[in-house]
Amino acid sequence: MNEQKSHISATQDFEIQKPARGRAYLVPVLDWDHLKEKVRGIESSGLNFQTAGSIFWGIAGTAFVGALSVPKDLTVMGAPSVHFCWGIAIIGVICGSMALYFAGRQRKLSNHTKQDVISEMERIEKRYGKTEQQ
Fold first, then answer.
1. Nearest-angstrom CA–CA distance, 51 and 103
2. Nearest one of 60, 65, 62, 66 to 89, comparing CA atoms
3. Is there a domain that residue 90 lies in?
4. How many CB atoms within 10 Å of residue 119?
5. Are the C-beta atoms of residues 67 and 86 closer than 8 Å to each other?
6. Residue 108: inside a domain
7. What does pTM read for this prediction?
8. How far apart are CA 25 and CA 35, in angstroms?
9. SS3 call for 75
């Protein structure tokens, strides 16, 4: 048996680009790993409270319109339906307001986490004596 080996070769030219000349920081690996952990810890605040608040306000608005437009003689379980509409509107406003309040608090906590990473980066800049913004 005659075994013949074939050789295939391909070439391609690449032009290597150098980064623009500028200032750089030598960051120790421990500091870099610390920053990576901080960034990994940043979580999206999500929109759960924002969504819930919007839904409750929508329910409250619908109930308010219903309270103004429902016939006065209509009853639900022996009570005027206007009372049910106003009750739903008031509960919707209270729940919606609380949910939107917590959405704002949640957003502030997320921004605080981002500020922690930026303060760590500024601490590293101070180590190298950076004083002016570029």
1. 9
2. 60
3. yes
4. 10
5. yes
6. yes
7. 0.55
8. 14
9. strand
Three-state DSSP class for residue 119: helix
φ, ψ for residue 51, nearest 5 deg: -65, -45
What token pair was written down for 80?
């005027």
Tens place of pLDDT per residue across the chain (134 aa): 556 677 777 777 777 777 677 777 777 888 878 888 777 777 666 678 889 999 999 999 999 999 999 888 888 788 888 988 999 999 999 999 999 999 888 877 766 677 777 788 788 777 777 654 54
Classify residue 31 by burial, with Cβ atoms within 10 Å: 0-12, 13-18, 19+.
middle
Range of the domain at 96: 48-121
Structure tokens at 19: 């980064």
8 A C-beta contact, residue 132 and residue 54: no
Is 116 within a domain? yes
- Say if strands 75-76 and 79-80 run parallel, antiparallel, or are unpaired: antiparallel
Number of domains composing the chain: 1
Tell me, yes or no, whether 133 lies in a domain: no
